[in-house]
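Lecture 7 notes: from sequence to structure.

We start with a single chain of 214 residues. Read the sequence below before looking at the structure.
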Amino acid sequence: MRAVLRRLRGGTDPSADERGQSFVEFTLILPVCLLLLMIMLEMGQAFNHKLTVGYATREGARTGAALASGGATNCAVADPAQVDQQIIAAAQRILKSPGSNVVMSDVSAIRIYRATATGSQSGSLVNVWTHTPGAGPDLDPGPGVDRLDFSQSTIAWPACSRNNGVNPDSIGVRVDYTYRLTTPLQAVVAMNGGSQAATLPMGDQTIMALNPTN
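Now the structure, written as tokens:
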């Protein structure tokens, strides 16, 4: 009855105004909520990639420390025991494992270097392996075994020259990786900052001392 009288008097229904106001507020808040959701999803994806890359460097460094074959200062063969190939293979197994979301084409290089006491690279003593899908060396030429997806492009720290005696060298393994945004946030970021803005450098490294000889 009151609503009828209000309409007869030219009034409006307050509940209709409240519904209209709620709709306007909803349309304003929804984009913000969706943006926050995409950011959280993207951060989760990036963190997962970061963990995988870090695990790969640890496996590589652990392999290099365990297989240290140093001793000679000048070597006829820089890596007679194929130590570096084993390091790359260990890192690659993690990067290509079934639970990994890492995009192998975005792994630009794996670096094996002599580390200083502070963990940084010692001068130019670094061996760089670049991504070359299926074109790297084959540790096991048997059937059904994948070749390495990395080939050595530079060598400045031969495996045979690494000191694993009383004061052993420290080996560093670094994976250079570029993470690309995967959620619709990629389009939003690219629209405002270009395609390069939708990528994130995500290198990781692990340092370990070479296992000393007995």
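The helical segments are 2-8, 14-66, 83-95, 185-193. Keep this in mind for problem set 3.
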